Each structure stands twice: as structure tokens, then as C-alpha cells.
């Protein structure tokens, strides 16, 4: 946790390293699992990827997206959001910046963009923690979905993103929700027990599947779809904070 009295440079020093186990996992298992070839037949368009929705919630319906609009997708994974923004903005002078510290994830996203012929994406294989040194400029919209909870200090990540916003900018964040993930936390503990002393990730996954497929239907994880949402999605913009599940 950040002590409120800490100065920015001290916060940066204390938490300025990436968690190697997180990075290694997303290098070995890019997320979400995507086959670039699928770009030939479909596009993934969910609510917060849709420019009309962003315009409504962040810009009060007044954004034209025609004036050098800049988007950062921080922790962009295999590229769902980047592809969708780039596709919607391909006939404008907007720029979409992809940022992720997993090179394997970026390679999949790049292949998807190539198949679609998208040229409006800047590719950055780096950490959110390094944004202050990357000279990326400011952004009118930042998407950071399922990422900040992976940082040693989510507050530092949030501060770095906030400092990267233009004066009119807003962002869309998603972090895991404690109660909705109760079943997931049970499974995490179980996995740590069954994989105690195991050093190979392949072996860990094999053991994990063996356990998962033997769980009764009444297990809290399997009941997850009936529980409260396992994530909190919220938008932040200069004039308001919109909370939704
Ligand atoms: C759960 S995935 C979410 C991917 C994407 N945002 C989505 O919603 O499909 C988390 C992603 O964040 C990336 N990530 C985690 N910590 C990061 C950091 N400090 N800097 C850059 N990327 C990070 C991981 O490599 C991974 O691709």
C-alpha cells in the first residue's frame, strides 16, 4: 500500500519492479486465448470497446474522434480491445497504443492486426511501471482491463495511468472484486497445495486440471456463475466516476 505521505519518486522506487511470476505466466499463457485466423470471420465487440459507449460515458456524447484522438490500452493482452478500437478508427487520424510486458501476447495481437490490415496501432512491449520513461505522450482514453490487480502496488499503476491522461481524457478500468472471487481464491489455495514443490508450469497445469475436473458441481468455484460478479468495472473521467458491474 502507498503511504499517503510518500513522495512520488519514493513510491516509484519502492514499487518500481514488475512481478516476475505474473510476467512469466502471461508469456507462457497469453490471455485471452485467441487464434489470429478468426479475424477473417468475426470481430469481438463488447460494451466498453464500442466508441459510442465511450463517447456517452466519458465525453458526454461530444467526442468526434476525428482530431488526433489517442487511446492507450494498458496490459492489452492478445489484443481484443486494441483491434476493436483500431478497426472503428481506421479512417481517422487517431492512434491506438498497445502496451503489454508479454511479448508472446503482443505477437498474437500483431498477427490479428496484420490480418485485418490495421496500420493505426503503435506497439509497445513494456511495463506500465515504465510508462513515465517511454515518452508516449498523453491519452484521451485509457483502457486497462484485468491488469492493475497484478501489480505489487495497484495504486502506483493507477497513478501512472492517471498522469498519462490528457486534460479531457478518461479511463475504463476493471479490477477483480473480492466477494465475487471467493470461489477462485479457494481454488488458488487448492492449487498451491497440490503443486507444492512442483517446479514445471506444465506439470502445475496438468495437476490443476486433474483437480478442477474432479470438483463436485456444488463446489464454490463451480457455483461462481450464481454469485456476485467477480470483477468491478468502472469508468473515470474528469467530471464524474461511473460505477457499474
Ligand atoms: C488478464 S490479462 C488482460 C488482457 C486484456 N486487458 C483483456 O482484458 O483481454 C492481463 C494482461 O496484463 C498484462 N500485464 C500485467 N501486468 C503488467 C504490467 N505491469 N505492465 C504491462 N502489462 C502487464 C499481462 O501480460 C496480461 O497480458
Automatic annotation (TrEMBL):
* Pfam families, alphabetized: Methyltransf_12
Q: What is this protein called?
A: Class I SAM-dependent methyltransferase domain protein
- Return the PANTHER family for the record: METHYLTRANSFERASE TYPE 11, S-ADENOSYLMETHIONINE-DEPENDENT METHYLTRANSFERASE RV2258C
Please tell me the species this chain comes from.
Candidatus Megaera venefica
Assigned keywords, A-Z: Methyltransferase, Transferase
UniProt xrefs under CDD domains: AdoMet_MTases
- Any GO BP annotation: methylation
Highest taxon of the lineage: Bacteria
Amino acid at each position: 500500500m502507498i503511504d499517503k505521505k510518500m513522495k512520488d519518486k519514493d513510491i516509484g522506487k519502492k514499487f518500481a519492479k514488475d512481478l516476475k511470476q505474473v510476467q512469466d505466466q502471461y508469456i507462457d499463457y497469453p490471455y485471452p486465448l485467441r487464434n489470429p485466423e478468426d479475424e477473417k470471420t468475426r470481430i469481438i465487440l463488447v460494451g466498453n470497446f464500442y466508441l459510442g459507449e465511450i463517447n456517452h460515458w466519458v465525453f458526454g456524447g461530444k467526442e468526434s474522434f476525428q482530431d488526433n484522438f489517442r487511446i492507450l490500452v494498458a496490459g492489452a493482452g492478445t489484443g481484443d480491445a486494441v483491434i476493436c478500437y483500431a478497426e472503428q478508427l481506421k479512417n481517422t487520424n487517431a492512434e491506438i497504443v498497445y502496451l503489454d510486458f508479454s511479448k508472446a501476447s503482443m505477437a498474437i495481437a500483431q498477427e490479428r492486426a496484420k490480418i485485418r490490415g490495421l496500420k493505426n496501432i503503435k506497439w509497445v512491449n513494456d511495463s506500465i511501471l515504465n510508462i513515465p520513461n517511454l515518452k508516449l505522450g498523453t491519452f484521451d482514453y485509457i483502457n486497462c482491463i484485468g491488469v492493475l490487480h497484478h501489480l505489487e502496488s495497484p495504486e502506483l499503476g493507477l497513478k501512472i495511468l492517471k498522469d498519462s491522461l490528457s486534460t479531457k481524457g478518461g479511463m475504463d478500468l476493471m479490477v477483480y472484486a473480492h466477494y465475487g472471487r471467493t470461489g477462485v481464491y479457494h481454488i488458488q489455495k487448492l492449487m498451491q497445495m497440490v503443486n507444492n514443490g512442483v517446479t514445471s508450469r506444465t506439470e502445475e497445469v496438468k495437476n490443476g486440471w486433474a483437480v478442477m475436473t474432479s470438483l463436485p458441481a456444488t463446489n464454490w468455484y463451480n457455483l461462481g456463475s450464481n454469485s456476485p460478479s467477480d470483477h468491478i468495472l468502472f469508468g473515470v473521467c474528469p467530471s464524474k466516476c461511473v460505477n457499474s458491474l
